């Protein structure tokens, strides 16, 4: 559906259209596995375990599961339901309330940014896999061409959190030593420059690995196999139990820290793939009547960290790192000390790739479904559809190339930090508020009754009208209060790298590029709709529902009044 068609439709107060036939899942299991494949993402391998330990161990699970109950499950169900009732991707699905169709655009932009840097993680993993086909892993030695005189092999002697030790010489100068794994990561894989101002040249080995991520197709269940294999192996390591104790031991004092609640709430949105348009796209392929992995990956990671703590005599809280540091420094370092290390290295990085491929393909499908619904008749042509998919992949690949340069890690950090973490909370707030109040919780309950065979009227009222909007708003306010400017800690430097002002501004520009689409689209639609200002608002709040052969509720012209009056569960 084109924007012109959408704007023309809203001038009619009662609209039911018959859409082009939409593809469907072959069975319920296809939908379930696809959702699992996207939700079981890379963030559950390194981000969740780190946040759990950083924010009080087992105590972190309290705000986490509160966030699951108040935001994760309600928004997950909401997005799938909206996709299923409209049979459209996230942009066209927001014809359910055309005034807020900009929410669909915002989701699509956030999804695009996510696809850009997720593929880079897989490129790094491919590099490590290819480097693992050797009798001795290259990051366990200090005699390679990229090593410096400061290189040290990881042994049982103490090292600090960034694997650096300062050895005083002549009382007035120090020699900084860096372990071989860190040098391999920074000097061989990344060829890391001094800052984002020195972007450097493209690393063609990583560029080819990045290209490889776009020509793979893998099912969603394989990551489980490798997670279980790694869990069994790491659980047998010396000190693994200490790692699990540190991972899950509660620190109740952390519950009063607002950062803990902000981290937990934000992680929920990424764990459940909320606000990216993917769940809406998946739901749109359901038939109209179709009716604790992250903890496991955390156990694998912290069994490994416990083992490292044991052999190096270092407190575990000095070893844990976040993000790429956990996946590409800490874990490879531990693997290098295991018997048969090349095999375990290949297993770990294959798992990373499988998780990333599932996330990438689901994300790309969400983007394609959103954009493709704009031109449904053209996209029905297989040749045009293939060309469009190819253009999306090429565009994403080209953006990803900026992250495989000498300064690519700094670009990666900008995307990861600014592109969606806080903005996605606003998306969740608007989704629940618009569906609960403007479209109406009564109407969505009737849709669910028609599709699922039962109505969740009280659930819709309680969560989509009250708790989820308030909780999402609270999380956003907290995230703003605890906001800190982005820094990047290099292992070879004692002080973290602070991004220059222009880079921070670029990060905020990237973040605002998605959320500003909401008021921009709203203004455009108001300007292009006939009538007085109030009449335009009313027309733009009337759902444009596409009939697929089933009986669909007649839309009243006074839909705003009906929806607002609907917030009365007693008389419903």
TrEMBL record:
It comes from the Eukaryota. Keywords: Disulfide bond, Membrane, Metal-binding, Sodium, Symport, Transmembrane, Transmembrane helix, Transport. One of its GO terms (biological process) is amino acid transport. Disulfide bonds join 142-151. Na(+) 2 binds at residue 44. It is found in: Membrane. Pfam families: SNF (PF00209). Na(+) 1 binds at residues 37, 271, 355, 358-359. GO terms for cellular component: plasma membrane. One of its GO terms (molecular function) is metal ion binding. The chain crosses the membrane at residues 58-78, 90-106, 112-130, 206-232, 264-283, 295-312, 343-372, 384-403, 423-440, 461-483, 503-527. InterPro entries: Na/ntran_symport, SNS_sf. It is a multi-pass membrane protein. Belongs to the sodium:neurotransmitter symporter (SNF) (TC 2.A.22) family. This is Transporter. It comes from Schistosoma mansoni.
């Amino acid at each position: 559906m084109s924007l012109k068609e959408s704007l023309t439709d809203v001038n009619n107060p009662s609209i039911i259209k018959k859409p082009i036939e939409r593809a469907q899942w072959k069975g319920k299991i296809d939908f379930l596995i696809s959702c699992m494949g996207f939700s079981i993402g890379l963030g559950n391998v390194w981000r969740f375990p780190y946040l759990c330990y950083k924010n009080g161990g087992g105590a972190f699970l309290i705000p986490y599961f509160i966030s699951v109950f108040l935001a994760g499950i309600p928004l997950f169900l909401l997005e799938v339901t909206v996709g299923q009732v409209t049979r459209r991707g996230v942009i066209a699905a927001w014809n359910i309330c055309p005034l807020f169709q900009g929410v669909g655009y915002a989701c699509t932009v956030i999804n695009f940014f996510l696809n850009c840097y997720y593929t880079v993680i897989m490129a790094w993993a491919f590099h490590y896999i290819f480097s693992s086909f050797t009798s001795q892993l290259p990051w366990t030695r200090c005699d390679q061409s990229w090593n410096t005189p400061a290189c040290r092999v990881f042994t049982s002697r103490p090292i600090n959190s960034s694997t650096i030790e300062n050895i005083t010489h002549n009382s007035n100068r120090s020699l900084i030593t860096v372990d071989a794994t860190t040098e391999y990561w920074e000097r061989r894989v990344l060829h890391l420059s001094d800052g984002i101002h020195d972007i450097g040249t493209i690393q063609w080995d990583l560029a080819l690995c990045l290209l490889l991520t776009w020509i793979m197709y893998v099912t969603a269940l394989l990551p489980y196999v490798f997670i279980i294999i790694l869990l069994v192996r790491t659980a047998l390591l010396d000190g693994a139990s200490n790692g699990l104790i540190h991972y899950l031991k509660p620190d109740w004092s952390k519950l009063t820290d607002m950062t803990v609640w902000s981290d937990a709430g934000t992680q929920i949105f990424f764990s459940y793939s909320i606000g990216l348009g993917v769940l809406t796209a998946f739901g749109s392929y359901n038939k109209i009547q179709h009716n604790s992995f992250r903890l496991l990956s955390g156990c694998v990671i912290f069994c490994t960290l416990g083992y490292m703590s044991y052999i190096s005599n270092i407190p575990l809280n000095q070893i844990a790192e976040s993000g790429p540091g956990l996946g590409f420094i800490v874990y490879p370092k531990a693997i290098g000390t295991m018997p048969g290390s090349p095999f375990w290295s290949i297993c770990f990085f294959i798992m990373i790739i499988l998780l990333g491929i599932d996330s990438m393909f689901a994300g790309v499908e969400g983007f394609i479904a959103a954009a493709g619904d704009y031109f449904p008749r053209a996209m029905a042509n297989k040749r045009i559809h293939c060309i469009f998919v190819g253009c999306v992949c090429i565009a994403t690949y080209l953006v990803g190339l900026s992250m495989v340069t000498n300064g690519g890690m700094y670009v990666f950090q900008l995307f990861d930090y600014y592109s969606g973490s806080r903005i996605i909370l606003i998306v969740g707030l608007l989704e629940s508020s618009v569906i609960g109040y403007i479209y109406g919780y009564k109407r969505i309950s009737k849709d669910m009754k028609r599709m699922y065979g039962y109505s969740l009227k009280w659930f819709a009222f309680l969560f989509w009208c009250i708790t989820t909007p308030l909780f999402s708003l609270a999380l956003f306010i907290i995230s703003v209060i605890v906001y800190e400017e982005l820094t990047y800690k290099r292992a070879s430097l004692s002080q973290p790298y602070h991004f220059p002002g222009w880079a921070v501004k670029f990060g905020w520009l990237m973040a605002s590029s998605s959320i500003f689409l909401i008021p921009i689209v709203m203004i455009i639609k108001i300007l292009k709709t006939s009538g007085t200002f109030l009449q335009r608002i009313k027309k733009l709040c009337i759902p444009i529902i596409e009939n697929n052969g089933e009986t669909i509720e007649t839309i009243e012209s006074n839909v705003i009044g009906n929806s607002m009056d609907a917030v009365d569960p007693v008389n419903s």
